[in-house]
Amino acid sequence: MLPNDPLRRVLYVDLSRRRFWVADRPDLFEDGLGGTGVAIRLLEEECSPGADPLGPENPIIFAVGPLVGLFPIASKTVAVFKSPHTGNLGESHAGGRSAVALRMAGYGAVVLRGASPTPVYIVIDGDDVYFRDASALWGLRSSATVGRVIRERERGAGTRTIMRIGRAGERGITYACVVTETYRHFGRLGLGAVFGSKKLKALVIAGRRSLPVSDRKAYRETYGAIFRAATESPLMQKYHELGTAMNVLPLDAIGALPTRNLRSGRFEGAEAISGENLARHYLGRRVACAHCPVACIHLAALRLPYPNDPYFYKTVMLGYDHEPIYAVGSLLGIGDVAGMLQVMDETETVGLDVMSTGVTLAWATEALEGGLISRQETDGLALAWGDWETYVGAIRRIVDPPNDFYRALGRGVEYAASVYGGADFALAFGGNEMPGYHTGPAGHLTYLTGARHSHLDSAGYSLDQRAAAKGETLTPEGVAEALLEEERWRQVLASLVVCFFARGVYTPEVVQRALAAAGMDRSADDLARLGAETLARKHTFKARQGFDPARLRIPRRILETPSPLGTLDEDFLRRAIAHFFRDAG
Amino acid sequence: MPQRLSVIDVDRCVGCQSCMFACARRLGEGGLAGACIGVRSAGGIRRGFVVVVCRACPDPPCARVCPTDALVLRPPGGVRLRAELCIGCGNCVVACPFGAVFWDSAQKKPQICVYCGYCARYCPYDVLALEEIEALAPPPPPAAAPPPEG
User: In sequence order, what DSSP letters do the residues of A523-546 get, joined into one string?
Assistant: First the structure.
């Protein structure tokens, strides 16, 4: 690391005492590079096994990496914490301007400790940290309003990040998210609830500084090569044109689009909710994360009439992606695009993770159909596939629960099914709700074995799709080994911190060149070792917090509904899980 | 022919900041401190973006308010900073209605576009372009007030 690189600086903020200080921690960044590699080390220091996820002892750690602010698509911030949703490792990544802002403020990581007695928002403006009163912002109906108010009150327009929570986070809904720059999220595993438990309504980070490089000429050359690769790659062009919603139709075509709580892998409304249809009829703007030329963020312009005011309309701009389309589109049987977008809008307004919300509501719909619960539990709502207006009402009740049933829904599908039954069709893995791919065994094995129980941990869905296309036969051992290799490499990317969408651009050779510009010479072996070690640290952390791979629950539903690679076999999955964790060490 | 930077189509801007990073990288630096171009949202990202560039005015207000003549006119439009004359008063920053005079907070001096077009080469969506300045004559000086009568 270059001696004058501010990456080594870790900002500690103690909300209980309203104090802050900076520690020089080159050790952390030399060993862990940045991002997830540094964050997991800080979590080991800050979080004890018995920590209550919603207690002041649970830390929130944000980390960025050496390539942020230097190279394009190094645009992500890693957040780690103990998850109130799973009671285990919480890790969530987001873009927006969060990563560049944190780096430009002059830090590699921020550690938030303690809890404030009254609502606050924190402003990190370069070397200064301010605690601002947020009592008047607490309880605002919409998370968007929180962003607007802070935007007008604080400086740094254009280069700052404003991370904020909605009422779901205030209320401790265990899958509440943190919204940043209106359209990006630390979505999964409940960071929003941890913010809420600290009475932290928002975190603003701003700064503007230069970063040193080891060799100016080489830096510019490497930059140019990465920039060209990113802007000329056909995959990146597709992310720009249709965004992740490009996946809807191909997944439906092979029967891998989870529909009606995964009773099917095909949805008759797929065409309507496809990326193509959304782009044709609703796309209003494309937006990028800071320092990313790809601009994969797609905003739908939804024009809504007022029922009692002729010729009066409002236009809502809503971000959409494959996962929300799956979670509150096909999984809830909603093929009415405007209705689906309004369900998304409600999750944004209250600040819930849309994926967990959709899966939880899908389970509730089936539980009502099957008689496990009645209209008494649902507070009179007749939850039914496709009925988006009723789902909007249910989301409001999750955040303002009228009864124990909605309080249970506010803890996710795993918990709700433990109280009301229906675990066979409760689509959660390691306690985290399912992502939008029913491609085959590898996809589900990613959800089961991934450190975050996220589809992005090792992208098994792509392994399945390749096998299906080539007619290959997967073996438990082969899948386990491929997923482990992928998840280890993704630890490196998540340490730099490079967006996973650019994994084809940031090959190991390119990563080495880019790191050299930041004065960090690493061999291919060094990087491989870092990836394996970082993942091993996460497994150790999880084991200490009580995670046992042998006790992973496999929802029956995924074994019942055939995938493109045929009907899944539990024994195959169990053997692969065992092999994965044996190899992971 | 002298050139200037022009915002061709701001509606195509995605807010990626590639231009800002390019401007800083001109000097061989990472980060954003050296950028003489700014992108921000037009009151929330949903409304799109504002791209702030120096439009190379023929009669630039930034130069007019400089007490030490550190901002030298570049005919037919724009200015060049003679840093050795600058005392860092910041008048120029206030005078520019676009906010296109940026501030070097380390040196406490303005930093202004040099019309090189490096940023435009990194704009993936053709928002920016270098264009030749038409030889606009500066507006004539105001006519002298008539002598008071009487």
Answer: -HHHHHHHHHHHHHHHHHHHHHTT
Q: Which of A148, A209, A227 has its CB closest to that of B33?
A: A209
| A87: helix, strand or coil | coil
Q: Is residue A371 in some structural domain?
A: yes
Q: Which domain holds residue B67?
A: 3-128
Taking alpha carbons only, the member of A392, A519, A551 closest to residue A3 is: A519
Identify whether the C-beta of residue A535 lies closer than 8 Å to the C-beta of residue A405: no
Other Cβ atoms closer than 10 A to A21: 10
Interchain CB distance below 8 Å, A220 and B15 = no
pLDDT values of chain B reduced to their tens digit, one per residue, 150 residues = 789 999 999 999 999 999 999 999 998 999 999 999 999 999 899 999 999 999 999 999 999 999 999 999 999 999 999 999 999 999 999 999 999 999 999 899 999 999 999 999 999 999 999 999 875 555 556 665 566 554
- CA A482 to CA A57: how far, in whole Å? 37
User: A431, A88 in Cβ contact below 8 A?
Assistant: yes
- The verdict on A451 and A390 lying in the same domain is no
Task: Specify whether A401 is located in the same domain as A441.
Answer: no
Residues A244, A319: Cα–Cα separation, whole Å: 11
User: Is this prediction's pTM over 0.90?
Assistant: yes
Q: Which amino acid is at A65?
A: G
Q: How many domains does chain B have?
A: 1
ipTM of the complex: 0.95
Domain that holds residue A489: 433-584
Contacts of B46 in chain A (CB under 8 A): 182, 285, 299, 317
- Tokens 């018995």 belong to which residue? A50
Backbone phi and psi for residue B79, each to the nearest 5 degrees, phi listed first: -135, 160
Cross-chain residue pair B46–A299, CB shorter than 8 Å: yes
Residue A171 forms part of a structural domain: yes
> Which parts of A216-255 fold into alpha helices (H)?
216-232, 234-241, 248-254
List Cα–Cα distances, A520 to A66, A184, A490, in angstroms.
Answer: 8, 30, 19
Question: Is B85 within a domain?
Answer: yes
A295 touches chain B (CB under 8 A): yes
In terms of C-beta density within 10 A (0-12 exposed, 13-18 middle, 19 or more buried), how is residue A287 classed?
A: buried
In a domain, B30, yes or no: yes
Torsion A295-A339-A390-A370 (CA) sign: negative
Domain count for chain A, please give it.
3
For chain B, how many residues are written? 150
